[in-house]
Amino acid sequence: MTDSRPNLLFVMADDHAAHAISAYGSTINHTPAIDRIAHEGMRFDACFCTNSLCSPSRASILTGTYNHVNGVTGGYQTFLSGKWHLGHGGIHDPIGFDRWSVLPGQGRYHDPEFLEAGGRT
After folding, report:
1. In sequence order, what are the residues at sequence separation of 6 or more whose Cβ sits closer than 8 angstroms to the Cβ of residue 90?
2. Residue 8, SS3?
3. What is the distance, to the nearest Å, from the Cα of residue 54 to the centroid of all Cα atoms in its chain?
4. Which of 53, 80, 84, 93 could potentially form a cystine with 100 if both were Cys, beta carbons 3.0 to 4.6 Å apart?
5. Euclidean distance between the first and the last CA atom of the chain, given in angstroms as a whole number
6. How confident is the model at residue 101 (pLDDT cuts 50, 70, 90)?
7. What is the CA radius of gyration of the chain?
8. How is residue 27 annotated by DSSP?
9. Domain layout of the chain by residue ranges
10. Tens digit of each residue's pLDDT (9 = 90 or more) over 44-62
11. At 19, is the secondary structure helix, strand, or coil?
12. pLDDT single digits (tens) 81-98
């Protein structure tokens, strides 16, 4: 039996305003790859988050629920990648994801070090 659920690609850029993307009206920035995804897929025009803090707002966006009821995966596998500035080890590690690989702090761009559930890579 074929899985009929859609494939999802969710791109979330930190401090990246919608008006900086040409699909949302920018005449200064030309973003043809993002424009194509917006044209062929789904575009969010009325999206907001109920929490002004980084981690809780990301969890709300990823799950589509209020922060007090997050945790439902809907059968999808989850992976977190990106910068992580909440520490490492024990209670500081990302939770709620099947796998994760994050850059500590703001991250090093040349030869970056990643943190994973099994340690540093």
Report:
1. none
2. coil
3. 11
4. 80
5. 38
6. very high
7. 17
8. S
9. 1-47
10. 777 766 666 676 777 777 7
11. helix
12. 888 888 888 888 888 788
Query: How big is the chain, counted in residues?
Result: 121
Please give the pLDDT value at position 8. Answer: 79
| Both tokens assigned to 28 | 């200064």
Q: CB neighbours (10 Å) of residue 55?
A: 13
Q: Which residues are catalytic?
A: 54, 85
Helix (H) or strand (E) holding 28, with range, is none
The single residue listed with the structure tokens 């009325």 is 46
pLDDT of 38 strictly over 70? yes
> Where would I find the H helices in the chain?
32-40, 54-63
Return the number of other C-beta atoms located less than 10 Å from residue 93's C-beta: 16
How many alpha carbons lie under 13 Å from residue 114 in its C-beta half-sphere?
11
Q: What confidence score (pLDDT) does residue 31 get? A: 92
